[in-house]
Design brief:
single chain, mainly alpha, 95 residues
């Protein structure tokens, strides 16, 4: 959920969604149809995924700030973290 495209954020990485590429809601619905697990807390897990990935990315941004990684990489990963945290905020606001 943290890296899948939604109406506000493109897919993280080099994947370019194509015609028929499932939306985040379609992906969750597919999981619901094929799993016996409850999705009552799916938003909570989405927020957790965004937070966990964001903290990892910020670690590399910190390394870049210390001169141990390229500044451009740190800036890019920090921007991705902000996007992830904004996504988490939207998930919280929906519930």
């Amino acid at each position: 959920m943290a890296t899948w495209a939604d109406e506000h954020t493109p897919v993280v990485g080099d994947i370019e969604p194509w015609d028929g590429f499932p939306s985040l809601n379609e992906l969750i619905a597919h999981y619901d149809r094929h799993s016996t697990r409850s999705l009552d807390a799916v938003a909570w897990y989405g927020v957790l995924a965004c937070f966990k990935l964001g903290t990892l990315l910020e670690g590399t941004q910190a390394r870049a700030s210390a001169g141990k990684a390229p500044k451009e990489t740190g800036d890019h990963l920090h921007a991705m973290t902000i996007s992830l945290f904004n996504r988490a905020h939207r998930l919280i606001a929906k519930n």
